[in-house]
């Protein structure tokens, strides 16, 4: 049996060979530097140079923008190196050496948008402070609309017009959060192609897992757009010092709040997924296929919705009925990816 696959009578869905528990210090270190770089530093430099020196306002923002984004720039080129190097174990499954993953493509587009925004906002003798304060809300708008668009296209039955990370061209459009998790963990988290393969096996095998990712994507992408809209209103209606401060700080308040909500939500849904898998003796729908019509069981959001039937009736889930799927293997279903020669398994993780 290939790595990442699970027998039809297994009591649990395919495992994911990755844990955050052993990486807590590295994650905390990175996010501490990131918050300092993209929140504390721009605000501190703005107030310190604007009110504490005789520098021109244009020079103040020249310094602020020059010092901005050091961690992000390092991360960009670190990812690029990991994806392009000859012996890369991080690039998408079965992708050519020159192919970037979906997150890096969007990373590049976001940097181009922000570069234009910062140049326009600071090139004038009197900088447009409110536009400079819109850097992080712009990122929230971009990823929110991109992630929602992918899932809308998915629900409408569109196929992937090009390779989206490990999802081949012509396959069912993947839910956007699945692609984000795949790319970030594989490259930035060091999971590599082994994690891409294991995650894709889990994604194709478990309709419940796909539904959970769809709901979480709507929660994050929708919340991102709503919060970005609220922050934009604040930025353009409050005094400039307040607008600048809140424009750089409120996105982190949103991210922290959404993370606090997400952790117990996902933990609960993963327990429900295991229960649904045991009750149905395996996966439902077409085996090892991204079948968007497959019954998936009652998620945590669905259970809450049952108590509030008047809210969002169009998102009601299909009730799953126990069924015994026909024995199958990835070889009989072309959508399950087969590891290429660059994907080397880690015996300890496996």
How is this fold's topology laid out?
Elements: H1 24-52, H2 57-67, H3 70-84, H4 102-122, H5 129-132, H6 135-155, H7 176-188, H8 192-205, H9 207-235, H10 240-280, H11 300-307
What features would you highlight for this structure?
disordered C terminus, 350 residues, mainly alpha, transmembrane, transmembrane helix, elongated
Describe this structure in words.
This protein has 350 residues and is mostly helical. It has one domain (21-309). Helix content is 59%, strand content 0%. The protein has 11 helices and no strands. It has helices at residues 24-52, 57-67, 70-84, 102-122, 129-132, 135-155, 176-188, 192-205, 207-235, 240-280, 300-307. 34% of the residues are buried.
Summarize the structure.
The protein has about 350 residues and is an all-alpha fold. It has helices at about 25-50, 55-65, 70-85, 100-120, 130, 135-155, 175-190, 190-205, 205-235, 240-280, 300-305.
Q: Based on helices, strands and strand pairing, what is the structural class?
A: mainly alpha
Q: Specify the biggest β-sheet.
A: none
DSSP strand content: under 5%
* Shape assignment: elongated
Order of helices and strands: HHHHHHHHHHH
| End-to-end separation | 13 Å
Specify the helix fraction band.
Answer: 55-70%
Tally of separate helices: 11
Number of DSSP strand runs: 0
Mean pLDDT: 82
Uncertain runs: 1-5, 311-350
List the domain count as a whole number.
1
Q: Indicate the radius of gyration in whole angstroms.
A: 22 Å
